[in-house]
């Protein structure tokens, strides 16, 4: 949450900062701001509540000159979203400006100590406390901003990625990180700083990922220097070449990133599968697992930790792994796991499942399991993000940047990787027959084509969305592999349309939720032909008997459900364990069109952020 950008070089910093903020807006969009040092040495700060567009509007006709600056787009934690709490924050003298992503846990103690020394504060933020602390250290130790930031990192407890500029030194940006991501782009005589690589890629593909506990000194026209904050030892800089294209970061003619990302799924899943399933479907290859074959052969338990949509994918992963590998799987909310007292043994494998690879709770859950001796494995999308860097091994889903806040292509990518993983481990363990493996692996290869088929429902779903746009509540029901799909369908609708929706195991509905059903509460029921098909059909009848409207997602050619449901959406036949990959598509489209009809900001729904780097 919160995105930070920085630039030092020869170009006008403002343009790069604003463009960077647009790229990072998915991380938070409560307010934004820039701080630029101009040729005369003035530190100009412009901030505005709301989206980056509001900042641009505000900054019009202001002095935007200068080729060093920092910028921020905020997801509020300390203090309401307003102009004053917006970043960058400034020290009392106006000399130092700072942007920050993260939370400073001991900020109230630090604030009190600084107040006692006569410092006053204008905002409610933890960031202002940190920038005042930096200036206080500079004054008392008579040191540079670099020395002061280094010292401040020893006194600050919490998570941070920060960038700092000093009006009196317009040739340097200081950046540091602890538990929040920070990437430095290395150009020709210029440097870029950002929370992720997306603002950097159009200028350079050479990046340095800062590690936890590191501080970077970025001097104009000089080589980048990185040090360990505690020991002050210089770190060896590793330059990584980015494999990302700008097209992946643009809407490509679609009105929203979410719609683009839904329609991208045939390609993203083809990329996810590429090189991992042999043409005859007999062999699955995931090097992160093969290289640690013994671990997966001998483990007695797999724990999957995740949040949000990734948690739903994890629930499908549990079915897959238990079905094909016969290894017990526990799925935990990362935020609960990290503060619980789980029994973890050395033989356990913990899978951290995360699109962004930055979710604070998932990262902390992973660290907890790691320190208890578990083998930690990451399944992530963002290359070079914190989770893959903290795990013993892992596997990327390779679906490209996901920018819409509501996760779509990452969900199907995660399920696809979990499916391939379960086939591979099952094969290694001998718990799946060769013929079953070949059947399912071949079906995975068909998924991209089948999803294209499902897109033919687009117009029908658009019409359906019109009927339900004004519903106040929705129920999503599914069983087995598609119970998590019901949860995910409900979450999609909630997060982008703000309609209350609940996902339930279809049979469990009888134990309470059925009381809510009436003519005004539509149910979306996933009733594909699986081993509990007849049971789901009965659940539909129970809803209908109480006057409920039913939208059913069924297997192509179904004649039974179509007679009882009010509306039917057909998806092609596929192995049961892969049906969530197909049922996800109409659920995504239905949520999307309802939200559009309601005039919601689909890509940036209120109160949400894509990458949740705070607790
Ligand atoms: C946020 C996003 C969700 C996402 C969840 C977990 O809430 O809005 O779309 O599912 O975080 O994120 P992760 O990056 O760990 O998958």
3D structure, described in words:
This protein has 615 residues and is of the alpha/beta class. It folds into three domains: 3-247, Glutamine Phosphoribosylpyrophosphate, subunit 1, domain 1 (4-Layer Sandwich); 253-432, 3-Layer(aba) Sandwich (Rossmann fold), CATH 3.40.50.10490; 452-601, Glucose-6-phosphate isomerase like protein, domain 1 (Rossmann fold), CATH 3.40.50.10490. Helices cover 37% and strands 22% of the residues. The protein contains 20 helices and 24 strands. The strands form four sheets. The protein has an eight-stranded antiparallel β-sheet with strand order 3-2-4-1-10-9-11-14, with helices on one face. β23 (550-555), α19 (561-564) and β24 (567-571) form a beta-alpha-beta unit. α14 packs antiparallel against α15. The longest helix has 21 residues, at 409-429. It starts with a strand and ends in an 18-residue tail after the last helix. Residues 307-310, 354-356, 359, 362, 405, 407, 608, 610-612 line the site of 6-O-phosphono-alpha-D-glucopyranose. The site of 6-O-phosphono-alpha-D-glucopyranose has 15 residues, from α10.
């Amino acid at each position: 949450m919160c995105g930070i950008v920085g630039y030092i070089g020869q170009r006008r910093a403002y343009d790069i900062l604003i463009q960077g903020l647009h790229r990072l807006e998915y991380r938070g969009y409560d307010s934004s701001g820039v701080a630029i040092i101009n040729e005369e040495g003035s530190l100009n700060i412009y901030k505005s509540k709301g989206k980056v567009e509001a900042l641009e509007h505000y900054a019009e006709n202001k002095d935007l000159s200068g080729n060093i600056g920092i910028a921020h787009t905020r997801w509020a934690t300390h203090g309401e979203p307003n102009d004053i709490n917006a970043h960058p924050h400034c020290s009392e003298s106006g000399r130092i400006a700072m942007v920050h992503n993260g939370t400073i846990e001991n900020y109230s103690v630090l604030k009190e100590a600084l107040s006692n020394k006569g410092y006053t504060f204008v905002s409610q933020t933890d960031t202002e406390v940190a920038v005042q602390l930096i200036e206080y250290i500079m004054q008392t130790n008579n040191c540079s901003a670099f020395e002061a930031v280094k010292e401040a990192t020893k006194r600050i407890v919490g998570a941070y990625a920060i960038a700092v500029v000093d009006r009196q030194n317009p040739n340097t940006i200081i950046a540091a990180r602890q538990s929040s991501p920070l990437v430095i782009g290395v150009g020709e005589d210029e440097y870029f700083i950002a929370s992720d690589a997306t603002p950097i890629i159009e200028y350079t593909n050479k990046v340095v990922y800062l590690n936890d506990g590191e501080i970077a000194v970025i001097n104009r026209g000089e080589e980048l220097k990185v040090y360990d904050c505690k020991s002050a030892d210089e770190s060896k800089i590793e330059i990584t070449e980015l494999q990302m294209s700008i097209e992946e970061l643009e809407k490509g003619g679609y009105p929203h990133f979410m719609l683009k990302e839904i329609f991208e799924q045939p390609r993203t899943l083809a990329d996810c599968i590429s090189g991992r399933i042999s043409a005859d479907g007999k062999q699955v290859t995931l090097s992160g697992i093969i290289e640690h074959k013994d671990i997966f052969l001998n483990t007695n338990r797999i724990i999957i930790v995740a949040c949000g949509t990734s948690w739903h994918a994890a629930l499908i992963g549990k079915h897959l792994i238990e079905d094909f590998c016969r290894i017990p799987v526990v799925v935990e909310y990362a935020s609960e796991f990290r503060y619980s007292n789980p029994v973890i043994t050395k033989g356990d494998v913990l899978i951290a499942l995360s699109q962004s690879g930055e979710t604070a709770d998932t990262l902390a859950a992973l660290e907890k399991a790691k320190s208890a001796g578990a083998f930690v494995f990451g399944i992530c999308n963002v290359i070079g993000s914190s989770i893959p860097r903290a795990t013993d091994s892992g596997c990327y889903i390779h679906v490209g940047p996901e920018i819409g806040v509501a996760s779509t292509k990452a969900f199907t990518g995660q399920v696809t990787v979990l499916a391939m993983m379960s086939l591979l481990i099952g094969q290694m363990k001998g718990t799946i027959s060769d013929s079953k493996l070949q059947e399912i692996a071949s079906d995975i290869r068909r998924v991209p084509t089948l999803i294209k088929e499902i897109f033919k429902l687009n117009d029908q779903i658009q019409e359906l969305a019109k009927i339900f746009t004004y519903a106040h509540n929705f129920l999503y029901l599914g069983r087995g592999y598609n119970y998590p799909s019901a949860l995910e369908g409900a979450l999609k609708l909630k997060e982008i349309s703000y309609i209350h929706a609940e996902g339930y195991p279809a049979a469990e509905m009888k134990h309470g939720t059925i009381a809510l059903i009436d003519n005004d509460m539509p149910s979306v029921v996933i009733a594909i032909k699986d081993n509990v098909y007849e049971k789901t059909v009965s659940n539909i009848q129970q809803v209908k008997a109480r006057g409920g409207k039913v939208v059913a997602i069924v297997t192509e050619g179904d004649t039974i459900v179509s007679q009882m449901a009010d509306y039917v959406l057909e998806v092609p036949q596929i192995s049961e364990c892969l049906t969530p990959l197909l049922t996800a598509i109409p659920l995504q489209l239905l949520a999307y069109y309802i939200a559009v009809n309601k005039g919601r900001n689909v890509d940036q729904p209120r109160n949400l952020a894509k990458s949740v780097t705070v607790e």
